[in-house]
Design the sequence.
């Protein structure tokens, strides 16, 4: 049994720079089976539409109230609650009432296939790029034995939020590396 620990290694107000640093870190552990997944939280209908246009294969899911659909068959629930690809999102703004923020994700893609497009599309919204199935190499001179079980890399944008819950123009982007330094022996 072990626990993941993510160590922040870089912070900047520039999401593209954070992605660049995270990508360089990820390359140390990249393997032929490494993958990338991306996630975003979108706070307005305009943001959802923009990201859906840029990421039409993204999977979008809106919020629901606790118990709102208890006993309702899945096929009778709104598509935005169940989840729908960007190309299938409704145009009617009323479909988003009570559903914001909307989460967007693309999972288990080849490394290098989505990171730049995603970072540009998400802009100042809260977003995360997560590289998985990495393997940190051995560094015997530092007493570090290579590790794969918990090897991941992240690049996140966490916008500062004003009283109107709108992101400002000064996000805090960071890069982290995860490893299992607390593995039970």
Sequence:
């Amino acid at each position: 049994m072990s626990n993941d620990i993510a160590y922040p290694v870089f912070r900047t107000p520039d999401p593209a720079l954070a992605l660049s640093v995270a990508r360089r870190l990820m390359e140390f552990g990249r393997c032929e089976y490494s993958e990338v997944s991306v996630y975003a939280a979108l706070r307005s209908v305009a943001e959802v539409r923009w990201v859906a246009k840029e990421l039409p294969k993204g999977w979008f899911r809106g919020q629901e109230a606790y118990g709102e659909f208890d006993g309702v068959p899945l096929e009778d629930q709104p598509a935005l609650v169940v989840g729908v690809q960007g190309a299938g999102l409704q145009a009617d703004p009323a479909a988003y009432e009570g559903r914001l923020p909307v989460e967007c994700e693309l999972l288990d893609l080849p490394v290098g296939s989505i990171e730049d497009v995603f970072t540009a599309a998400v802009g100042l919204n809260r977003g995360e790029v997560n590289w998985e199935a990495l393997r940190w190499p051995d560094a015997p001179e530092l007493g570090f034995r290579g590790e794969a079980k918990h090897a991941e890399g992240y690049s996140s944008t966490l916008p500062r939020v004003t009283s109107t819950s709108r992101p400002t123009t000064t996000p805090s982007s960071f890069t982290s590396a995860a490893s299992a330094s607390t593995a039970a022996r």
About this structure: The helical segments are 15-29, 45-54, 79-82, 115-122. The radius of gyration is 18 Å. Residues 79 and 89 are 8 Å apart (CA to CA). Strands lie at 5-12, 35-42, 59-61, 84-85, 102-110, 126-132, 152-158, 172-179.
